[in-house]
Specification:
The structure is a single chain. With 524 residues, this protein is of the alpha/beta class. Helix content is 41%, strand content 15%.
Amino acid sequence: MIPVYSTSQVREIDEYAITHLKIPSLILMENAALEIFHFIMNANFHFGIHPSVGIICGKGNNGGDGCAVARQLSNAGFNVKVLHTHLADQMSADCRTNFQILQNLKSINKNISIKKINSVKDVQSIRNSDLIIDAVFGSGFSGDLKDPYDKIIRRLNDLKSIKIAIDIPSGLNSDNGFTKLAFKSDFTITLGELKQGLFFNFGPLYCGEVIKGNIGVSEKIFDSIIPAAYLIEPEDALQSLPVKIKNLNKYTAGKVLTIAGSGGLPGAASLTARVVLKAGAGASILAFPKSVRNLIHKKLSEVVVQIYEDDRSENFIESAIEELEAKLNWADVVAIGPGLGRSETTQAAILKFLKRKRKYLLVIDADAIYALSNNKYKLLNLRNSILTPHHGEFSNLLGISVSELQKNIFNYGRNFSRSTKSILVLKGSPTIIFIPSGEVFINTVGNPGLAKFGSGDVLTGMIAGILAQHKNTEKAAIAAVYLHSLAADILKSVITEYSYSAEDLIKSIPKAIVFLRKSLEIIN
């Protein structure tokens, strides 16, 4: 696991370095500038003999970093154009110091030009730069970009140069990853430690590749701080997979009952029930309405179909619960939701089912999550359950808007998981896993091709199949989420993110496991 931190935690360490270690803040700024400079010099950008760089500097310490980087690049032979948003007497002390050094250096290094931005048109002066560096707002930014900064950032985003953001793209909230508009960078060099907002919500859309820059403070200082979240690494996923012992049989290898599908949505049930076996479980039974059984039988071979009476409604109804009693007692894991539908009778049946006492573990998805909307989940015991909503479903669950959720994802996710004692797998780009202890795990792989019908049904089956084998909800969520996305990345490399389907995703799961094993063998 790679730890990531909140803005306040990183600032706390900066303050500790200045106050207790007696490292002057200007030294920290110089170290930051050197990290950025060395990255640029070693990045193999294939610039010409005299490359050009445009740097936009704000009035705070982020702008001071930009001025210090400008000095380093000028000394290295770059043609440097610095645009600054404020006069020197409006700048922070450290920013003003580096700005004045740059002004003094200008008389010696003729490759430096410095200009205050008086209108958005001034941005045009750097339109032909090989490289553009954003040093307007740092990690302390919150809210929306106001005039003229919104216009400046839009103009910068239109330019075709390689773009680097210092610490965080201007306009992005470094805690919640939320923005309506931010600098769209190719690389973000975040300083001190990795900040949580770079890796979820809108962060990945604007940050490009994230590089951690050391500012001269020992990483051991962070050992005493509990991270805000963790990024999942390949070894975490591999270690979270169940171990296959030699004396397994099809029943000790994990038994899953899937309650899914309806007359209108039979495909989701097929995907979920089949992938249970592909994820390694020994037995998979699909509970399906009797009146439309012909829709499902021809799609399944290894999966056993358990028909229940549905009064020709083609849906899950309350009387089916008693009819499925024997299979519920048999199962290690029950997955419920995909394709069940949202009729009143089905939703009532789902709620009745979820209220019953149980010994099995639960994976709750799709229409079963919808049944818990507007705080109905508070009526249930969700301990030892894994819920897999996307942002819209989770918002409905809580009775809030999606935009409200996105502004405080960590708090909403943590509070839900803690209060319900359940695992929350919040699907999105990226998917985030919340566990009752308060820990948060952010998935680090995947691509836009997963935004397609059936992908979520495959994930539900993977979670259920892995969970049935080792009965560990946290490990099952981590392994399934990571492998699901890795399978998608393998498909992207072969048939692109446009073309793969849920069926392709199922076929790619074994390849993902093999890839994971082989890549870690090479590393070790």
